[in-house]
Write a structure and sequence with these properties.
It is built from 15 helices and 13 strands. It has 398 residues and is an alpha+beta fold. The strands form two sheets. Strands 1, 3, 4, 5, 6, 7, 8, 9, 10, 12 and 13 form an eleven-stranded mixed sheet that branches. β8 and β9 form a beta hairpin. The longest helix has 33 residues. The chain is elongated. The N terminus is likely disordered.
Length: 398
């Protein structure tokens, strides 16, 4: 086995690197069951780490379209649960820079017999709403039918697909926030937004069912350009300052992040779990490498006797540890990437998640952690080998 290996004092021949690679590979795969279990363990740990980092990203950084920078939402300054007077619309219409505005009231009903419905329903002015979500396109039905029919609704393509719906079907919702139920008819289907799940219906229908209270949940606005968004926000807030219903206007992005903050410190929780995963990964690789090296103390002693230096022995151990770790990372990260890319996310998460994108940055994080663990795992056995004398190593039983 050792005839092809030469001490460091002898000039390096071209074939030596090939022999050393073969030597490292044979040692790494000497106990194939252990090597396979190590690769699988590292792979599962890396896959879990990448999944958790992706989940953190999706929960703390909601998806956003370019058109979202033009949209503003105004809610009651006291609380989102407090309604706003519908008569504020006249004042908002007069504020320079606003090109479209509609009432935007969250209904929050449950569809069919569901106890929790994952997609939202909003009451809007159908004529005014057409100028808000400009990136959305009608892919089935006609928007004019939605405008004409007071019981009509506009439905996202993802919801249509998930529930196997078609134009003309009825959608019945049981009220949770409101003590009324909805019976809507699908008039049109939209697609092309960051969240193609929502359902939009006539605000006048909600007013009729609730006795026309003269209130709205929020105001949804679109401005001329992103450059004047902050100026418009200030004007909207100032327009209702010191009134019985002061408003808090903010960008659509800020409004979304407000809901994320209600979930608590999700980032800290996910990072703690990731830390536990990394620690477990380190224990697995360190334990495996230490066990593998202890079994070969006698062989390493022979290499020392032949003239190999400590740095060369460390490079053998490092190459073996690093190779197993990176094989595990390739297996785990590749499997997770393929799983989330081709899996039906809507069905798997029951509509909870819209996107689950394993980004190159997250993949790099997972691979970097595996590489770091491969290097760190080589240090303890390398130190043991460095301290070992040739005599002590030759006395060791295989």
């Amino acid at each position: 086995m050792w005839l092809n290996l030469r001490p460091s004092a002898v000039p390096v021949q071209p074939s030596r690197s090939v022999n050393l690679i073969s030597f490292v590979a044979k040692n790494a795969l000497r106990n194939r069951r252990r090597a396979l279990l190590t690769v699988i363990s590292v792979g599962i740990s890396c896959g879990l780490l990448v999944t958790l980092l992706t989940l953190q990203r999706e929960l703390t950084i909601p998806p956003e379209s370019e058109a979202a920078s033009l949209r503003i939402i105004a809610r009651n300054k006291v609380s989102l649960a407090q309604p706003l007077p519908a008569k504020q619309l006249t004042t908002i219409d007069k504020i320079p820079g606003i090109v479209a505005v509609t009432p935007f009231t969250f209904f929050g009903g449950n569809f069919r017999d569901e106890t929790v419905t994952s997609f939202a329903q909003f009451a809007v002015d159908p004529v005014r709403f057409q100028g808000i979500i400009v990136e959305g396109k009608i892919v089935d039905g006609a928007y004019e039918d939605f405008v004409r029919d007071r019981t009509g609704c506009l439905v996202g393509a993802d919801t249509m697909k998930r529930y196997n719906l078609k134009i003309g079907d009825r959608m019945k919702f049981t009220g949770t926030f409101y003590p009324v139920d909805l019976d809507l008819k699908i008039a049109a289907v939209f697609q092309g937004t960051v969240d193609d799940r929502g359902v939009f219906f006539h605000h006048k229908l909600l007013d009729e069912l609730t006795g026309d209270p003269g209130t709205v949940g929020t105001w949804y606005m679109r401005v001329e350009s992103a450059d004047i968004a902050n100026d418009v926000i200030a004007k909207v807030n100032a327009a209702f300052a010191n009134t019985a219903a002061e408003v808090r206007a903010e960008t659509e992005r800020a409004f979304q992040m407000g809901f994320v903050s209600m979930m608590g410190n999700v980032k800290m929780l996910v990072m703690l779990i990731c830390g536990a995963v990394v620690f477990t990964l380190m224990l697995v690789t360190v334990s495996t490498m230490s066990m593998a090296i202890r079994e070969r103390f006698r062989e390493l002693a022979v290499l020392k006797a032949l003239g190999f230096q400590r740095r060369e022995l460390f490079s053998f151990i490092l190459a073996e540890s690093f190779g197993l770790a990176m094989l595990g990372a390739l297996f785990g990260i590749g499997t997770v990437w393929a799983f989330w890319r081709f899996m039906d996310l809507q069905t798997l998460t029951n509509g909870f998640l819209v996107y689950f994108e394993v980004t190159p940055r997250i993949i790099a994080w997972g691979a970097s952690v595996a590489a770091a663990m491969g290097v760190l795992s080589a240090i303890p056995p390398a130190v043991q080998t460095a301290r070992m004398s040739v005599t002590e190593g030759l006395k060791t039983l295989d």
